[in-house]
Write a structure and sequence with these properties.
single chain; alpha/beta; Rossmann fold; seven-stranded parallel sheet; 8 helices; 10 strands; binds fructose -6-phosphate
Amino acid sequence: MARLNLPEATRFEKVPVSIYVDQETASLAVANRIADLIRDRQANDRQAVLGLATGATPIRVYEELVRLHREEGLSFRNVVTFNLDEYYPMQPDAAQSYVAFMNAKLFDHVDIDRDNIHIPDGTIPVEDIHEYCRTYEQKIVAHGGIDLQLLGIGRTGHIGFNEPGSAPDSETRLVTLNDVTRSDAARDFGGKENVPTQAITMGIGTIFKARVIILMAWSAKKAEIVKKAVEGEMSAEVPATFLQLSDNVEFVLDQDAATALTRFDNP
Ligand code: F6R
């Protein structure tokens, strides 16, 4: 596939897009940016505040961060994390919880202070969720805001669990999951009927406030939704299009996820 980066070729793209030869190379580049941020903050005796995603997309990034910790002495003592979302209801010790995911992929293998980890709590009584979500937002602010937010993208165009219909200024809240999203999660839960119908998610407005936003997407499965997010009209129908409003966003793709972009799909 030709690598076209000429201004003419990319004129349909409404966000900066970086395309890597494969998921491996892209993941290592993202992990290195995170490591640089952590080290830079360490050198200045400051915390690094990371917004983290779950799902298949960031797994290789987390593996590389664990390797950098084990083999190259990267410390997470100054790292504070806020995860994007959690199913609701969800027990933290359930196998499908995002708490279990983050522990298995990252937190159990690095020297992060457990008090610095924040993941929406899927056990909050429903009547307390509104207040809980306000407090989640306040904690982000109290830590000086998110320095770097990692995102994946769902086939519905969701970021976090901000499904179609989400407002660009939405904050952390309880949401209903889209049917496509629940189908995509069915395998993890042993059937769609077992996938929770709701989740707690940071809002699009919450994500916007991050100083750097990196949306990653791999494989041809994501090509169509990536094209809509990058080149499409901004609309609540594809929540990721709202990222076009941000000056701080970058899409990091492998070649397969980029194939539907006009610069490649135009004979
Ligand atoms: C996960 C999240 C979701 C995923 C998206 C892509 O915390 O917020 O938006 O990033 O559903 O999932 P994968 O990476 O499994 O394709």
